[in-house]
Amino acid sequence: MIVLLPPSETKRDGGTQGSRLNLSKFMFPALTGARQAVVAGLTQISNDSDVARKALGLSAKQQFEVERNRVLETAPVMPSLERYTGVLFDALDAPSMTSGEREFAHSTVLVHSALFGPVGAGDPVPAYRLSHNSKLPGLTLKRHWFTQVTDTLAAVPGLQLDLRSEAYAQLGAASHNSVYLRVVTEGTDGKRVALSHFNKKSKGLFLRALINAGIRHSTVDSLVSWAQSAGFRLEAGAPGELDLVVSSA
Question: I need a labelling partner for 42 at 20 to 30 A (CA). Which of 23, 72, 200, 216 fits?
Fold first, then answer.
């Protein structure tokens, strides 16, 4: 079983002293060439702050993001699950994980980066800024990544639980063994509505509980049964989807 996460726009600063980007340490080495191409395009535009901010949709106050990109090949790195911040990752709280939880997460969780494609939770990444809809010279991220990421994920055996946003799912499809997790609330009439405000936090809390349990579910039925025992309401939704039903309060 693997769990697919979206990345976050926000990143934690710092990293292991003396470390730097080394793509050979990433999962899925077949993607190295594609990763190098995006890194090269991003560092190229970062040499011109105005061009970079326009391509990345940044304001002048976000110039620090351009500076991050300018030095991303020599900046210190840390495990991807600890690099990302924001609502989902704050709820997941990777820095507080035990060694056992961290080991399980590193073998189970993938973060789908616009810069690197899918990376393992333990893969060492620098701080950077690149979104799914960012524009790089001569390179369209969706066209660049889709086939390669789709083929990569298709080769990963077992159940795939897809927690990505729809925007990042467009950068590569999960395998035929995947199920998409949607966070919803249910009205008194039984009608379910997708949530936005509690969506990311609910996914983070659910994944932390899954990591804490340390169970590698091979089927959807196993996952649903565990979720019920762990206090989550996880039920079948639309075809190929699971609904995580939460309170809107």
Answer: 200
Confidence of residue 205 (pLDDT cuts 50, 70, 90): very high
Alpha-carbon gap, residue 89 to 205, rounded angstroms: 9
Structure tokens at 213: 């349990």
* C-alpha 36: how far from chain center: 19
Query: In this model, does residue 195 exceed pLDDT 80?
Result: no
β-sheet bridge partners, residue 160: 2, 178
Q: Per-residue pLDDT tens for 124-170?
A: 999 999 999 998 988 999 999 999 999 999 999 999 999 999 999 99
Measured distance CA(200)–CA(164) in Å, rounded: 10
> H or E element: which one contains 105?
helix 99-108
In one-letter notation, the amino acid at residue 96 is: S
**How far is Cα 52 from Cα 30, in angstroms, rounded to an integer?**
28
